[in-house]
Design brief:
Elements lengths: L3 E3 L3 E8 L4 E9 L5 E6 L6 E4 L9 H5 E3 L8 H4 L11 H17 E6 L6 E7 L8 E4 L2 E3 L12 E7 L4 E3 L2 E9 L8 E9 L6 E5 L1 H7 L2 E4 L2 E4 L3 E9 L6 E10 L8 E11 L1 E4 L4 E2 L9 E10 L3 E3 L1 E4 L8 E4 L5 E3 L4 E8 L5 E10 L5 E10 L7 H6 L4 E4 L7 E4 L4 H4 L17 H11 L6 H18 L10 H5 L3 H11 L9 H10 L1 H21 L15 H10 L8 H27 L6 H5 L14
Helix pairs in contact: 10-14, 11-12
């Protein structure tokens, strides 16, 4: 068991004026040779918060030391989402509030990793009373992960109480967050209101802020900036933020009471950030689901913007891989602006020859600024490549054969309304229209297309797991792809070696992963990303169609969250979406790799001669037409 303890015997904030706040150190020492993982659960104490040490440039402190604890995600969660949970077109304000609530809860129930070090790990515990005469006296909810018994060194009492203020300001920190400097017009100011109150029942109070400091900021103003409050009265002060440059602004303003000139009653903090207008997207990349030859594939996504008054979208397809027949459509129109912050876009692709590609869609504004998003797709005549298409449209598939030509997959011809899917046709004789349209819209908005039904995907994974155990004597598998993920893809390397006689290069050893993890969290993640990137490229060189698979799709959900923190983008999934959607993306990615391995290494073993020799096949059914 790790030898870990807290230096402070008691953490006593004493009396803190309501509306003010105070921080005290919480020093955790790990004197053992192994990393101590402790669980801190502050969800029952909203008045308290904790602040991590500033991250060093060489270590991913925040993503590695503090990891939010969430329930184990399941694939079925993707169909249990409500439509309003998923990036609603006209619900930006509500979405932001819900995301803030999710983030706050995630920060209060966390696992902390305290590495062995000669230097103690110092957290800052912050107390901001939410009431007066409501003393807090409790044992810090901190325990050692994996141990039910209380560790005496971690058992510390927390004491605090809120004291009635002489003058009340709510809030004392005004955070405007990021505000966009609008293009095509004068910068518009942003406003927030704060409440001031005189709680004294008999005496008035005169107040003022440091006007010179306020004016020196050039971007913040207050109205009014001074005044008198009668007993038991309150008023509203409007704070205005008007950024002129794309930079961060922070100003501390002293507030004085009555005739005080030197001693400030409290210090208010005003902060905000200006940002240029820009176009961004609701995802990091567009993945077109694989389809058979001459069948259209489609994915939907949203083009979003901050700060444009009126703009017509212009899109150009990059030609790194030649001219691709990608068609871009705007079902809701091409204009974005003040009243339209997002617009739906459809990307479609159809080709008559096998192809797996990745290119970019470049969107331009009127000033010629380019905003790009990668798009990937695959079309092929192999069942191993388009297995997911067959699973999505199992009741719409027909097999056609012309003399002298290979068997070709085709679809019944129908209308979009018949299929209720991604624009594909349905067989009116066999297809049922039952199902939830909310689920369909929600799932499609999350991944860009309708996912494979959960029961079909689960049966697929069970079959793959049984095939692994029946075919490979050197490895065993209980769950697919969970076992692959937890063992860093080891079974897939074994499969490729078994089928091809050659082990793919670049597989990281467990020793290297452990060593990198002990040194630096970023290094450990980079080791896995490099391994998977080299594996994907190796399979591509040997003929695999894997452009729809990214190295980060093969990681554990927790590692993918770290990946998003290492490479932050506006288009990153929100945490609650990652927890529910990423398991599906990882599952489909591992299945795609598995079937491509069979396609390039296993199919060449199946010949008419071998087929006839299969045990249990009746002679009449073993005849293969030339």
């Amino acid at each position: 068991m790790p030898e870990v303890y807290i230096e402070e015997k008691v953490i006593d904030f004493k009396g803190i004026t309501f509306g003010d706040q105070k921080t005290l150190p919480l020093t955790i020492v790990n004197e053992s040779d192994i990393t101590a993982k402790v669980i801190l659960d502050m969800r029952e104490y909203p008045e308290f918060d904790f602040i991590l040490p500033e991250p060093s440039p060489d270590d991913d402190v925040h993503s590695e030391i503090m990891v939010p604890i969430v329930e184990n995600p399941r694939y079925e969660d993707i169909v249990n989402l409500n439509a309003e949970d998923v990036d609603p077109i006209n619900g930006e304000e509500k979405e932001e509030e819900e995301e803030d609530e999710y983030d706050e809860d995630a920060k209060r129930f966390v696992q902390l990793s305290i590495r062995p070090s000669t230097m103690p790990f110092v957290l800052q515990l912050k107390y901001q009373p939410q009431g007066i005469e409501d003393p807090k006296n409790f044992i810090l909810p901190l325990k050692l992960a994996g141990y039910n018994d209380t560790v005496p060194g971690l058992r510390r009492r927390i004491k605090a109480v809120g004291v009635k203020p002489r003058f009340f300001v709510d809030p004392t920190t005004v955070n405007f967050k990021t505000k966009v400097i609008a293009k095509g017009q004068k910068p518009l100011p942003f406003h927030q209101d704060i409440q001031i109150q005189n709680p004294d029942p008999s005496k008035p109070v005169t107040w003022r802020v440091d006007r010179e400091k306020l004016e020196a900021s050039k971007v913040f103003s207050m109205n009014p900036f001074e005044g008198t409050l009668e007993p038991n009265s309150h008023s509203i002060v409007r704070v205005t933020f008007n950024p002129h440059e794309p930079t961060e602004y922070v100003t501390k303003i002293n507030l004085y009471l009555d005739n005080e000139k030197d001693n400030a009653y409290l210090v208010m903090e005003l902060k905000g950030e200006g940002a240029d207008a820009k176009i961004f997207f609701d995802r990091r990349e567009i993945i077109l689901p694989p389809v058979p030859l001459d069948i259209e594939t489609k994915a939907t996504f949203q083009v979003c913007h901050n700060g444009y008054e009126n703009q017509m979208l212009r899109c150009k397809i990059a030609n790194e891989v030649g001219q691709l027949p990608i068609v871009i459509k705007y079902p809701e129109g091409e204009n974005i602006g003040v009243t339209k912050l997002k617009v739906k876009v459809e990307a479609t692709f159809k080709f008559s020859s096998p192809l797996s590609f990745t290119t970019f869609l470049d969107f331009f504004d009127d000033e010629g600024n380019k905003f790009s998003i990668p798009i990937s797709g695959t079309t092929d005549n192999s069942i191993f490549t388009v297995y997911s298409f067959l699973q999505r449209h199992f009741d719409e598939i027909v097999y056609r054969q012309e003399k002298g030509k290979p068997i070709k997959l085709d679809q019944y011809v129908g209308s979009d309304n018949d299929s209720q899917k991604t624009g594909f046709a349905a067989n009116p004789k066999t297809y049922s229209k039952q199902g939830s349209s909310v689920i369909s819209r929600t799932a499609k908005s999350l991944v860009g297309y309708n996912p494979v039904p959960s029961d079909v995907l689960e049966r697929n994974c069970e079959h793959v797991c049984r095939w692994f155990n029946a075919s490979l004597n050197t490895t065993s598998m209980q769950l697919f792809p969970q076992d692959l993920i937890t063992q860093n893809g080891a079974q897939m390397y074994d499969l490729i070696t078994y089928l091809s006689g050659k082990r793919p290069p670049g597989q990281a050893t467990q020793k290297a992963i452990v060593a990198a993890n002990q040194t630096n969290a970023k290094d450990a993640l980079k080791v896995l990303l490099n391994q998977y990137e080299e594996l994907i490229n190796y399979l591509k060189v040997n003929g695999a169609h894997l452009n729809t698979v990214r190295p980060e799709y093969l990681l554990h959900t927790g590692d993918y969250t770290k990946f998003l923190k290492m490479f932050p983008k506006e288009e990153n999934m929100k945490p609650k979406v990652v927890d529910r959607v990423y398991p599906y993306i990882a599952m489909e990615s591992w299945l795609t790799i598995f079937y491509q391995v069979l396609r390039i290494y296993y199919l060449n073993r199946i010949t008419p001669k071998n087929f006839k020799a299969l045990p249990g096949v009746p002679p009449a059914e073993a005849i293969v037409d030339p």
